[in-house]
Design a protein that fits this description.
Blueprint (H helix, E strand, L loop, with lengths): L20 H10 L6 E5 L5 H8 L4 E6 L2 H11 L5 E5 L12 E7 L8 H11 E11 L2 H4 L9 H7 L2 H9 L3 H10 L2 E16 L2 H9 L12 H14 L5 E14 L2
Parallel strand pairs: 1-2, 1-4, 2-3, 4-5
Antiparallel strand pairs: 5-7, 6-7
């Protein structure tokens, strides 16, 4: 069944990771974070809230609808100057109108039922000329084949029905463009990103994370027995030694008009 973000069992599922240099390099090519007021909607454990702070943002507000996950974010990153965490919905953040220079949504929009209302909320929160930046996987990203540095692709080879789940929820370029246009954004662009998600000292460390479904909502679609089978399959496909896990993403960017 789908992940329950409000269950305290899952409170650390999006914690304990740092944003890679590959992500930071892509972001500064798209937007100047220095001195900006940034809102990180769907912040999870605060990994990218902290990353925006480290890139030089003046303030970063992480918003999430899960109190248990927010508690972990506050515990890990809440003492950083200019960083705050707030409970809110993607379509109703509770933040002031015109209070942000950047609204960032990573791995969020495939979880929301109505992208247009989420885009409209981003437009409300942004100042004129502000940047709306979505990072998510399109169906084309999901279709990338599995390999030792992209083991996520193997999930769908082992359990093809997971691909149906992904394709049903992942946004297309057309859907994102339409939502942004309906909210009054202009200057719409998109680009692809291979982001290093995490580097693991050994294959077994990576497999242990898979075995606990950490940070991968799609794995909650599998039963415990199926998850055990997946771990065994991945063990056979991955070489012994370190694992550098990369994921393919799309970055959609639009600018709020005056």
């Amino acid at each position: 069944m789908p992940i329950d973000f409000h269950d305290t069992v899952n409170r650390r599922t999006y914690s304990g990771r740092e944003a890679d240099a590959s992500w930071r390099a892509a972001i500064v090519e798209l937007v100047d974070p220095v001195g900006a007021d940034v809102v990180d909607v769907g912040c999870g454990g605060g990994t990218y809230t902290r990353a925006w702070h480290d890139l030089g943002a003046a303030t970063v507000t992480g918003v999430d609808f899960s109190e248990p996950i927010l508690a972990e974010a506050r515990a890990s990153h809440g003492d950083l100057p200019g960083v705050a965490f707030s409970r809110g919905e993607a379509a109703a953040t509770g933040l002031d109108t015109g209070s942000a220079d950047v609204v960032f949504e990573r791995a969020l929009v495939h979880h929301v039922p109505d992208l247009a209302t989420v885009a409209a909320e981003a437009a409300r929160v942004l100042r004129p000329g502000g940047t709306y930046l979505i990072q998510d996987r399109s169906p084309d990203d999901v279709a990338r084949p599995g390999s030792p540095d992209h083991p996520r692709g193997w999930l769908f080879e082992v359990f093809p029905r997971l691909l149906d789940v992904e394709n049903a929820r992942r946004p297309t370029d057309i859907a994102v463009a339409q939502a942004m246009a309906s909210a009054g954004f202009d200057s719409f662009t998109s680009t692809s990103l291979w982001e290093v998600r995490r580097q693991y000292a050994d294959r077994e460390v990576y497999l242990a994370e898979i075995g606990t479904r950490t940070g991968r909502s799609i794995l909650h679609e599998l039963s415990d027995a199926e998850l055990d089978r997946l771990v065994d399959e991945l063990r056979q496909r991955l070489p012994v030694g370190p694992v550098v896990e990369q994921d393919r993403w799309t970055l959609w960017l639009a600018v709020r008009g005056a």
